[in-house]
From TrEMBL:
Pfam families: Ribosomal_S30AE (PF02482)
A GO CC term attached to the entry: cytosolic small ribosomal subunit
Organism for this UniProt entry: Pseudogulbenkiania ferrooxidans 2002
Protein name (database record): Ribosome hibernation promoting factor
GO BP terms: negative regulation of translational elongation
Family stated for the protein in its record: Belongs to the HPF/YfiA ribosome-associated protein family. Short HPF subfamily.
Lineage, opening ranks: Bacteria, Pseudomonadati, Pseudomonadota, Betaproteobacteria, Neisseriales
Keyword entries, A-Z: Ribonucleoprotein, Ribosomal protein, Translation regulation
Alphabetized InterPro entries for the sequence: HPF/YfiA_ribosome-assoc, RHF-like, RHF/RaiA
Assembly and oligomerization: Associates exclusively with 100S ribosomes, which are dimers of 70S ribosomes.
CDD domains, sorted: RaiA
PANTHER family registered for this protein in UniProt: 30S RIBOSOMAL PROTEIN
Gene Ontology molecular functions: ribosomal small subunit binding
Length: 109
């Protein structure tokens, strides 16, 4: 998994980067085929905004969240991303064919 963390009007510190990586472990537990993750953190006056683009095989997921605290915005972002990834995973598993039961042998009397 390639991780890219970008800060707009914000310096991305190592503790902030480590916090993001620890939260992304939850996503990698659900799906194994995460190709690329791009996280963008931005500050606009009192609003802290976190965005993420996740490139899975066959699907791109974009999620964003805003809060007054950057760590709270990241928590909210990861909750939303977790729901989206689980939804995508359920859609993949629903397309599998349902096996039909074999017909019961007829008893001769």
């Amino acid at each position: 998994m390639n991780l890219k963390v970008t800060g707009l009007h914000l310096d991305v510190t190592q503790p902030l980067r480590d916090y993001i990586e620890s939260k992304l472990e939850r996503i990698t537990r659900h799906v194994d085929h995460v190709i690329d993750v791009a996280v963008t953190l931005s500050v606009d006056k009192l609003v802290q905004k976190a965005e993420v683009n996740v490139h899975l095989s066959g699907k791109d997921i974009h999620v964003e969240a805003t809060e007054s605290d950057m760590y709270a915005a990241i928590d909210l972002l990861m909750d939303k991303l977790d729901r989206q990834v689980l939804k995508h995973k359920e859609k993949l598993s629903e397309h599998r064919a349902i096996p039909t039961p074999a017909p019961a042998p007829e008893a001769t009397l």
